[in-house]
Amino acid sequence: MTVHKDFLRPDAATLEALRAQSPATLHEAMGKKGAMGHPIKPLFPGMRLCGPALTVSCGPTDNLMIHIAVALAKPGDILVVDFKGMTDAGPWGDVLTASAIARGLGGLVIDGCVRDAVAIRDMGFPVFCRGTNMKGTNKTDAKGDINTTIVCGGVMVSAGDIVVADDDGVVVVPRDLAADTLEKAAAREAAEEAYRHKLEAGETTIELLNLKPYLDAAGITL
């Protein structure tokens, strides 16, 4: 068991700049990296989050380390939990949600399930997970790690990395790549804005993205 009580968080300006970007844009800006797998989805449509990752590795039958992590969290932290992809129980519910809100957490991303879904939605707490399961877990086994490097949803996450999520899914921006990612994301947004103007003027995506050679190779004539 390894428990680091604190970690280096990104500055507020970096977080706000990343919050303004979509996860899809950030994923593209990082060279199509950082996106968690398809099973990790918002518990309800419209949920969004952005903040530094407080990482937890535990489970798959006990959630004691999650309780410890919530107690260590600082306002704005996003709890990122590797629960080993286990979907036969819900290690997170309304009580942990109430605790997380009281401590100012910005959301939860878990490679596993949650329960008390409607209560969580009504509390306004963003959760990204594999789904729901009403079964509970034990709270007795202090085996696991907090604020180490984990794998969640197929993506490596270190404490202090920035997690951004919306209806499209979850992306993880390594803290030391944040500035470069923001620069590339801004350039991508500018290019896409120019694309939209050209499309409105009548160009097709075939012309805009120079796809004609592929049509020619396939013998397709428009």
TrEMBL record:
It is an enzyme of class 4 (lyase). GO terms for biological process: benzene-containing compound metabolic process; methylation; monocarboxylic acid catabolic process; phenol-containing compound catabolic process. Its cofactor is Mg(2+). The keyword Methyltransferase applies. The keyword 4Fe-4S does not apply. Keywords: Lyase, Magnesium, Metal-binding, Methyltransferase, Transferase. Gene3D superfamilies: Ribonuclease E inhibitor RraA/RraA-like. It catalyses: 4-hydroxy-4-methyl-2-oxoglutarate = 2 pyruvate. It comes from the Bacteria. Its EC number is 4.1.3.17. Substrate binds at G93, D94, V95, L96, R115. One of its GO terms (molecular function) is 4-hydroxy-4-methyl-2-oxoglutarate aldolase activity. CDD domains: RraA_family (cd16841). InterPro entries: RraA/RraA-like, RraA/RraA-like_sf. Mg(2+) binds at D116. Homohexamer. Belongs to the LigK/PcmE family. This is 4-hydroxy-4-methyl-2-oxoglutarate aldolase. It comes from Azospirillum lipoferum (strain 4B).
